[in-house]
Records
---
Amino acid sequence: MRILVIGGSFGGLTVAFSLRQKLGARHEIVLVSKEARFTFIPSLPWVAMGWRRMADISFDLAPVLSRWKVGFVEAAVIRIDPAKKQVHTAVETLDYDYLVIATGHRSANEAVPGLGPFDGPGHSLMSPPEAEEAREAWTAFLDSPGPMVIGCAPGASCIGPAYEFAFEVHHALARRGLRHKVPIVFVTPEPHLGHFGVGGFGKARQFLEGEFEARDIRYRTSAAIASISAEAVQLVDGPSLPSRYSMILPALSGVRAVAESGLGNPKGFIPVDAHYRHKDHPAIYAVGVAVALPPVEETPVPVNFPKTSNMTRQMAAVAAHNLAADILGGAPVTRTLSAECILDMGDRGAHMFADPIRPPRNRSEMSIGRRWLWAKRAYERYCLWRLKRGWAGPASGLLG
Ligand SMILES: Cc1cc2nc3c(=O)[nH]c(=O)nc-3n(C[C@H](O)[C@H](O)[C@H](O)COP(=O)(O)OP(=O)(O)OC[C@H]3O[C@@H](n4cnc5c(N)ncnc54)[C@H](O)[C@@H]3O)c2cc1C
């Protein structure tokens, strides 16, 4: 059997390593990624702030995969043909018996004129080149500070990093004695602060309102951004907010290769069953940000459901178990997703946990302290160390 995995990040690596563990050496596993390196995406806000270099948070995929006898093709997939069980890249066509899609997102920058950085004057954190561009612009901004708008576009799902960036910017400016020169407005489609697309975590709303007020960060909730220019962020049915540096995270869609192969919903995200198997194609599994998951509730301005790296690894563990069960025999499993993340607040961290992630929940907690900032830094090191050694980690262990 030949199993193709598309994507060299949290989802693709977790599936590839788990499958190698479960299947032994008998079956061929090949990972296809358009990037030669794995990048620890949650550290991109630190890259934008100049607190990390890309080399600190990434590693080459080829040596790690080769040690685990996983083939590696560095190429962008342009089309998938589920009828012929083939994946087309610009250079070759690859056959598969089973396919796992872990291609993450495409930033839907076209939805708001001016979303950037490569489509407009705005800045973003969604990919390494965007975080590096944001850092260069930030360095220039410090020489000539002015008003800032930070936040998310309507329909965004990856909202936590916008909060992190607001706290980090405040911290960095206050340390330089420049904060009084930079009015900051946080603009979000969320119906209240701390909603995060999941209906909130514990007392996140009261906590974040208090912390923003204590730092003099003004905020606008249920706000829809109409456009971004080099001088301002224009709200729908609202004012034009002066801004010389606008960090606005976009709504996401599925990548073009999936959308154009007819495997996704209208946004290009992949519909899966409880086993992370494609609803119409039994030989295809999908995990991570590429998967279609509905919003938790209707909100005045759309807010979509987030897919964190922790959730991605839980999905990957379930998909790897079920794919191995298809081949070796055994019962499929499913799992209710929980969420755990740490928000960097510049001088402290906030740990958030929700089980299950969709309300109503058994547990929903938030805890604050300097120890969580240290835990976030330690987790980055641990995760890079673990993946570099080809260890899929505890999320896959839970399923045996
Ligand atoms: C700024 C930021 C901060 C974040 N912070 C946190 C956090 O603190 N905690 C947390 O849990 N989560 C966080 N997340 C979310 C987390 O990064 C994602 O959940 C995780 O990266 C999803 O992994 P994935 O494997 O599904 O997709 P991705 O990480 O997006 O990886 C997609 C992979 O597919 C490859 N690919 C894409 N298209 C193709 C193609 N056509 N052909 C071949 N290969 C392709 C890419 O090269 C990449 O290797 C953050 C996200 C961002 C953007």
---
Amino acid sequence: MARRIAIAGASMGGLRAAEQLRSAGWEEEILVIGGEIHPPYNRPPLSKELLKSPGSIQEALATVTLRQRRTATDIDWKLGAPVIGADLTGRRLTLATGEELGYDGLVVATGLRPARVRVPGPLHGRHVIRTLEDALGLHRDLRPDARIVVIGAGFIGCEIAATATLLGCRVTLIEGSSGPMQRTLGRELSAGMRNFLAERGVECLSGERVAAFTWQDDGTDGPQRCTGVRLTGGSEVPADAVMEAVGSQPNVEWLAGNGLDLTDGVLCDGHLRVLGTEHVVAVGDVARYPDRRAGTGPRRVEHWANPTDTAKIAAPALVAGLNCSPTPEPAAPLPSFWTDIFGIRVQGVGSPAVADRIEVLEGDPLRPADGAALAYYRGDRLIAAVTSALPADRQLHYRKLVTDAGLPAGSQLAAV
Ligand SMILES: Cc1cc2nc3c(=O)[nH]c(=O)nc-3n(C[C@H](O)[C@H](O)[C@H](O)COP(=O)(O)OP(=O)(O)OC[C@H]3O[C@@H](n4cnc5c(N)ncnc54)[C@H](O)[C@@H]3O)c2cc1C
């Protein structure tokens, strides 16, 4: 009887894992089980171009559905059927449909869901964004002149603030304790991005947090609608809709009870094998694995390139384990990311968030729209570079600098 590799999660990570399993020579069954009803789709447009004009759900889906590579042959899909439990010893999964499925190898690709602001208040009129339905729901509230409060100034919060402003909304961005995208970009470029957002009409409130939501009691039995936020400083910001962009939470609850370390994702080794298991790997946003290039301990990477990078390591390791053959030496992928805000692209390679020193290489980070580049160091080693509004050849130049900086001394892993 054919053996089965089950993949839990049918988004980019699930799709890339299926493709890489075939590339790694797995000719037996592959079953991808997805919580969403849609085939795998691309999420970055959900806060950018698609959010401006999504059209119907069918039209939106047509623009974001991921094309499957030719290697992805003979894959079985079970969509709209979340996995709700796993017995990793008995190698069985339980689906929300009540179905039980056995497997020989398992890929964890269940990604993230948005975190919520933890203060009480009605949910009506409050948005998060992760799915196509989320984007369509938010778009309906982004009417010209609508007052939109965006809570959280990470990448997604800043992108939504920009998109909503371009649609004619009046946007207030509540930054919280640090500036726009500061955790990743560092203080100076973050300050430049705040200037840039403010010049284009986004009201940025720094150093303030949400203390409470406000809402309207219209005396009916219908859902009460959120009407804004009260800030820790005491002021109130009225809103026709609120967008919560305060981070995300890994989808790992279905793995509970198996003795795994599920603190902030699924803990893996450098081959993306889930620690404490046999024949289980993780890919994409949910995987927490050693960042060998930056020289840090295990951490998650939430960028678009990561599902592909991790699937290329995890799939051959899983196939090797199942076939009792030697596990190939894993690569040490160079993380990369980008964001598009008011027409400028901020792009990075490496792990700037774990740097301890930043140097300006080109331009003025306080004027990101005019072109800038920054280098990020950990100790003496260059571990990342970020460019803003620079042409492709300059980005490639800085990418090469980071690639050439290599791995920390003593690292056993092959670079790519
Ligand atoms: C709005 C938005 C904009 C972004 N923009 C950028 C960008 O500009 N640049 C960039 O580098 N990155 C960006 N990203 C990040 C990038 O899209 C992610 O890194 C990527 O989607 C991760 O893919 P994944 O498959 O690991 O996880 P996900 O995309 O989260 O997919 C996980 C899938 O698993 C499913 N699932 C969850 N639980 C279960 C379960 N129990 N059983 C079965 N299925 C389950 C989910 O429904 C989902 O379909 C953006 C993300 C978002 C949300």
